[in-house]
Amino acid sequence: MADLSKEPFNLIVAGVGGQGNVLLSAFIGMALVREGFTASVSDTFGVSQRGGSVTSHIRISRGVACSSLVLEGQADVILGMEPVETLRALGEFGNRAVITIVNPRPMQPTGGVSYPDLDEVRQAIIKLSARTMFVNATEEALEMGDPIYTNVILLGALAGADVLPVGREAMVEVLKARFPGALYDVNLSAFKKGEELIRDAAGIFS
Amino acid sequence: MNELLQDSPDKKMLLLGNEAIVRGAIEAGVALVAAYPGTPSSEIADTFFQLQKESGVYFEYSTNEKVAMEVAAAAALAGVRSLCSMKHVGVNVAADFLMSLAYLGVRGGMVIVSADDPSMFSSQNEQDNRMYGKFSGLPILEPSSIAEAMEMTRYAFDLSEELQEPVILRTTTRINHSTGVVSLGPINKNRATGTFPKDPFRYTVIPSVAMKLHKALLANYEKAAALSDTSPLNFTCGDGVWGIITSGVSYNYVSDALEELGLTSRVRVLRIGFSHPLPDKKIKDFLGKCEKILVVEELEPYLEEGVKVKAQEIGSIIPIRGKGEGIFSRAYEFDPAMVRGVIASYFGVENKNKKPIAIEMANIPQRPPNLCSGCPHRATYAAIREAFGDEPIYTNDIGCYTLGVLPPLSMSDVSVCMGASIGLGSGLGKATGRKVISFIGDSTFFHGGIPGLINALHNDHDQTVVIMDNGTTSMTGFQPDPGTDMTKMGLTNASVSIEALVRGIGVKHVTVAKPFKFKKTIEQIKEAVAFKGLSVVISQEICPMYEKTFKKPEKRTYYIDHDKCKNHRVCLNTLACPAFYLDGEKVEIDESACIGCTLCVQVCPENAIRLRKIGE
C-alpha cells in the first residue's frame, strides 16, 4: 500500500456517462473512509443521463477536508475509463508527474461526430503522462459476459497499481458490503482480473 | 437496516450531500417529507422514498413543489417535524404559498431545501435563492461542506421551532452532488402524529389576520438576526488587515487558495453559514479590523450588498469589492483556480499558477447530450418531423424530451419552465395564426400542464398538445408521477389515467399513439393536427431505461447490411440515435448500445438494417 505522499492527494476518474464511473468513484471513496482517510468525491457532469463526459474528483487527506474540486494541473493519478476522456482530463488536470491508468477501448461519440485516430490518442496520453498503464478492462468485461464489470475491473487495476494509500482489503470489503451473494463472487473475480491486468501492464514511461 | 437509519453516533460515513441532508433530518426526528424531484435535489426525495418502510418517515412525491410545500407545512402546523426539498426553480412554483406561509409560521420544525444550480448543469436558469430569504423574511442556512449539510439540516429543525417559522437550507449542486465524510449524531425519535387546535383567526390569512401576522414576522426577523449574530455558523479565521467574506462552497476555494498563496496570516476570513438575516455585529466588527475586503460568493452579490449596507451604517469607507469587471462574475459556478486568481490579483500577490498542459491533438470530440438509444421520444419527434417538417411552431417543456431541441430532430422552438409549453403554444398560435404543436411529458403534465390544457380548451385555441407519456419522471432518475403504475414497485397508490383526465375535461379529439408504430403514429398525428380546435395526442411508450430497472430486457440488436446499404444515411441524419457511429464513410450500429427499438429499421429506404439472429 502506498503512503499518502501528498496532502491532499488528487485522483481524477474520467469517463463517459453510463460507464459506471460514478459508482467506481464511490467505491474508491468508501474504501478510503474505511481506512480512516478524509475523502471527498465530486462528480462533474452535464444534463445527459448517458453519453456525456463525466469527471469525478477524488481528494484524499489525513486531516481537514479541503474543497471537493481538484485544481487544474494538479492530479496525482488519472484513472481513464475511455481514451479520449483520459486525454481531456490530462489536458485539464495533468502535469509532469501524473500517473495514468487507462482503459483503451473507445466509446464512439454520437451524432456523426468522428473519433480521432486511436493510435494518436494513445501516443498523446503516453507523452503527457509520467507513466501510463493500459488495462483492457472492457475487453475483459465482455469476456466475462457483460461490459458492466468494466468499472470493478478498473477498481482492481487501481488497487494493484499501488498508487493510492488504500489496499485491496478495504476495496474488497466495499464490494462485499455492496453486492449480495453471487453478485459479490462475480465482482470479486472482476476485481482480481483487474489486479492481474495491471501486473502485466508494465507501464510505459515517457 | 439501512446505514442511514442506524443510531450509531460518532460513526464516520461517506455520504452524498443529499444523503447527508437526509441523515440530518432523520437525526432531528423528521416525520413527514414531501418533494417534487429536480436536479440537484432529487436524491433527497429518492432516499426518503427508498427508506419509507424502514424509517417510519412518511414520504410522498407530490405533484409539484407547491403541493409538496403545502403538505409539509401542514404537518408542521400540526406540530410534526417536516421537510420539503426541491430545485431552485421549484421554489418559484411554491413561492405563492411560501410568501404567506412566512406570515403564518409553523409549530413543529419545518425545513425547506432549495438546491440551487450555479452553471445550470441541469436547469433553465441559475437564480440565487438566497434572495428568497430577503423576499420572504425567512432564515437561510448555507453549508460549505457535506458534514455541514448534515449538521445544518439537524440544526435547522431546532431553529425553526425556536422561531416558529420555516427555515430554508440553501445548497448548490457542488454540495448536493459531492460526497464527503460525516460524523453521525444520535437519532431523535420522531413524533409522527400531531394535533391541530382550531384557531381560524390565527391561520386564515384574511387581511385583518395578515396585518397582525406581518408584524409578527418582522418581530421574528429581529429575533433571527440576533441568533445569526451569535451563531457559530458565522465564524472568522485567519489574521491580517485584508479581509474575505464568503459563504457556501466558495469558502473551501478561499481556504485552498490562501494556503497555496501563503496568505493565511495576512488575510482574515469571515465565513457566513447563517446567511439570512446577516450577522450585523460580526460583520461590523470584521469591517473594523480590515483595510480592504473581497466578497467571494457565487451568483448574486447577496453578501456584498449586505456588507456594504453595514459599512455605510458605521461610516466605513474601506474598499469592498465582490462582483464586477476584473473581480467575480455573477454568472456560473466558481472553481478553485479562478478564485485563487482573483484573490491574488485583488490583494496584489503573485499567483503561482500551474498552467494546464496544452493538448496537441486538434480535435478532441465533444460529447453533447442526446436522447438515449431506443428512446420513444425520438420516435415521436421523428414521426412529427416526417409529417410536418418545419411548418408548425413547436413549443416544448422541461424533461428529457427537451433534448429534442438538438438537430436533426430540432423539435423545440421555445421552452421555458415546467408546464409552459401549452400556454406558450396558445399564445403563439393566436399571435401568429400558425399551427402550434406543444410537447409535454407525463410528469410535467401533472406538475404544471393541466391548467394550460384547460385554458386551451376553454378559450378554444387551435393547437395540438402531444403528451409524451413514458410512465415515469426519467430526467431526474425515474421517480414515479401520478400516472406511474406503482404496482411495479409493490405499492398501491392510485394511478391517474392521462387519457381519462383529458377526455374528462372535454377535449374532443384525443388519440393514443404508440410511437414505435411509426407509420401509424404519423397518420394519427396528421389527423390530430387537421382537427380544428384543441387536439391531444398521448404518445405512450415506457422509458426503456426505466423499464430496465425492474425487467431484464430481451437482447435484440440490429446491424447494417452493407450489401444493401446505399449510404443515404437517413438513419443517421434524421434520427441521430447514439447507437450509430461512423466508421470512415460507413454508418455502423454499436450493438452494445442498440436496444432493438426498430425505429431505424422503419425509416431505412433500402431495408438494410437487419435483426441480428442469435448466434450470428
Structure description:
The complex is a heterodimer of chains A (206) and B (616). Chain A has 206 residues and is α/β, with parallel strands linked by helices. Chain A has one domain: Pyruvate-ferredoxin oxidoreductase, PFOR, domain III (Pyruvate-ferredoxin Oxidoreductase, domain 3). Chain A is 42% helix and 18% strand. Chain A has helices at 21-34, 83-93, 118-128, 137-143, 150-161, 168-178, 181-200, and strands at residues 9-16, 38-44, 53-61, 77-80, 99-102, 131-134, 204-205. Chain A has a seven-stranded mixed sheet, with helices on both faces. Chain A is globular and about 45 Å long. With 616 residues, chain B is of the alpha/beta class. Chain B folds into four domains: 3-229, Rossmann fold; 233-347, Rossmann fold (3-Layer(aba) Sandwich); 376-547, Rossmann fold (3-Layer(aba) Sandwich); 558-611, Alpha-Beta Plaits (2-Layer Sandwich). Helices cover 38% and strands 18% of the residues of chain B. Chain B has 21 helices and 23 strands. In chain B, β16 (436-441), α16 (442-458) and β17 form a beta-alpha-beta unit. The longest helix of chain B has 24 residues, at 207-230. Chain B is globular. At the A-B interface, α1, β2, α2 and α3 of A face β1, β8, α10, α13 and β21 of B. β2 (38-44) of chain A pairs antiparallel with β8 of chain B.
